[in-house]
Specification:
Elements lengths: L3 E6 L3 H12 L3 E6 L6 H15 L6 E3 L13 H4 L19 E2 L1 H10 L4 E5 L4 H9 L2 H5 L1 E7 L15 H4 L2 H8 L5 E4 L1 H4 L3 E2 L1 H9 L3 H16 L6 E2 L1 H10 L4 E10 L10 E4 L7 E7 L1 H12 L2
The structure holds beta-D-ribofuranose (BDR) and calcium ion (CA).
The site of beta-D-ribofuranose has 13 residues, from helix 1, helix 7 and helix 12.
């Protein structure tokens, strides 16, 4: 298999679009849920609902972090809906029909496939921080690359003027991961705000009639209602997923990224410096939006 991806996710509408996209590309090795857009329970239910709808129940699910290492999270139904999937209220499938694994499984597949597996993180970084604490250096060095949707490096945040949601939800975890010296690309608001799903895209998907496409259309229209100001919805998580497959979609620059923990105003800010000694990571600074949207749409329409 050319690409193998472990997806850490808190579905979430744009998470759901990323799951559908990666599922169509047949690259998902496991789905690792976390608290974030909703409780761990609801996010895990959403992963189950999506795999059922996609007919991909052979993909193992790992129930990850139930709590942020940094704060008690509030869940706001505004962005993703009460059910986290745009109030589509898909039926909850029977849990016993899924393959359930744990953190040891992630460690074992990393060890068995050195240099082969990419971890894509599209929720808070709690799961990855726990992996860093638990796994040996050798295991961690077998990760091919980590792609992170998170942060706002040279642009304002979306939770506060300084912080982006995934980092704000667990800045302690984010700091651990971003300074871990592992190979990493940060896909933050700097570039995700340049990739926008519009009503025109939804109509193209809807025109190819199927239960999955009807679901995508209904869920996405809910998301667009929240983003009224931009007449579309940001494809944060699908962009990170796409970068894992085709890094040429974005331009990067190397920075040391610190995460602010001790300033209440700037809590969760991803702060770039050009320090030479500090661990440096690749930060997305520009994106070929048209190329990404073509890739995304063509994959969804497969
Ligand atoms: C991130 O926040 C979440 O609400 C989205 O799913 C995305 O991962 C964007 O800031
Ligand atoms: Ca997400």
């Amino acid at each position: 298999m050319p690409y193998q991806i472990i997806l850490s996710t808190d579905p979430g509408i744009d998470d759901a679009l990323a799951i559908i996209f990666l599922s169509k590309l047949k690259v998902l090795k496991a789905i690792w849920t976390t608290v974030g857009n909703n409780t761990l329970e609801v996010c895990t239910h959403n992963a189950m609902k999506l795999l059922e709808l996609l007919g991909r129940k052979e993909i193992p699910i790992i129930k990850g972090a139930a709590q942020s290492l940094s704060l008690n999270l509030d869940f706001i139904a505004e962005v993703h809906g009460k059910d986290g999937l745009g109030n589509t209220f898909l039926p909850l499938p029977d849990a016993s029909s899924f393959i359930w694994k744990n953190l040891d499984y992630i460690i074992s597949i990393l060890e068995e496939n050195p240099g082969e597996i990419t971890i894509v993180s599209i929720g808070p970084l709690t799961n990855l921080a726990i992996l860093l604490q638990k796994a040996s250096k050798k295991t961690l060095n077998s990760i091919k690359e980590i792609i992170i949707m998170g942060g706002a490096v040279n642009v304002p945040g979306n939770v506060t003027p300084y912080a982006e949601f995934n980092i704000y939800s667990d800045p302690k975890a984010a700091k651990l991961v971003l300074t871990s010296k592992l190979p990493m690309i940060l896909v933050g608001l700097d570039i995700t705000h340049k990739v926008i799903l519009t009503e025109a895209h939804i109509q193209v998907i809807e025109a190819k009639r199927s239960p999955l496409n009807e679901f995508i259309a209904k869920m996405s229209r809910y998301y667009l209602k929240f983003h009224k100001r931009i007449q579309g919805g940001y494809l944060h998580d699908p962009l990170a997923a796409a970068v894992a497959i085709d890094p040429s979609l974005i331009t990067t620059q190397d920075f040391f990224i610190d995460v602010i923990l001790d300033d209440p105003l700037k809590f969760g800010q991803t702060y770039p410096t050009k320090s030479r000694e500090a661990p440096v990571i690749s930060v997305g600074v520009d994106v070929n939006s048209e190329k990404f949207l073509n890739f995304f749409m063509n994959t969804l329409l497969k």
